[in-house]
Amino acid sequence: xxxxxxxxxxxxxxxxxxxxxxxxxxxxxxxxxxxxxxxxxxxxxxxxxxxxxxxxxxxxxxxxxxxxxxxxxxxxxxxxxxxxxxxxxxxxxxxxxxxxxxxxxxxxxxxxxxxxxxxxxxxxxxxxxxxxxxxxxxxxxxxxxxxxxxxxxxxxxxxxxxxxxxxxxxxxxxxxxxxxxxxx
Length: 184
Description:
This protein is mainly β. The chain has a single domain (about 10-15, about 25-145, about 150-180), classed as Calycin beta-barrel core domain (Lipocalin, Beta Barrel), CATH 2.40.128. The protein is built from 2 helices and 10 strands. The chain has helices at about 10, 40-45, and strands at about 50-60, 65-75, 80-90, 95-100, 105-110, 115-125, 125-140, 140-155, 160-165, 170-180. A hairpin with a 2-residue loop joins β9 and β10. It is globular. It holds the Pfam family DUF3833. Keywords: Signal. This is DUF3833 domain-containing protein.
């Protein structure tokens, strides 16, 4: 669900072998399978301030980028707005603003500036499946990739996210992100 990469340097040479012409995969979420006693409610979890730390690795496991994200969330009763401010270890800074609408008791749809179409999410228990296509600039050319995120809320309030980044169904990288809300 978060912008782990946006430049050619973010994904390295592992992407070079892929063709650049076709659009990303369909954005449908399959339900998570594990059960846990704690329920994840996105509009509650992301209300206010949240901090996240993450890494992006290429498909061989090589670390490509590290980052921190400061997130401000606001729920207006129907739309969750997430203002994400990225600070990369290499000094780069980026931002993304999500508008996420709750479409049912456990379903969500989201939009952001670089997201193609609609992101779709499904919550079951403590888990979220969140799938969306993102347009990245690679060598000044637009390339659409699919993020397939899986998030798990832990009993201590930490939210763990593992996102597979795909093109034509082929995984070329993974982002791992840990979210934490401030202790009150």
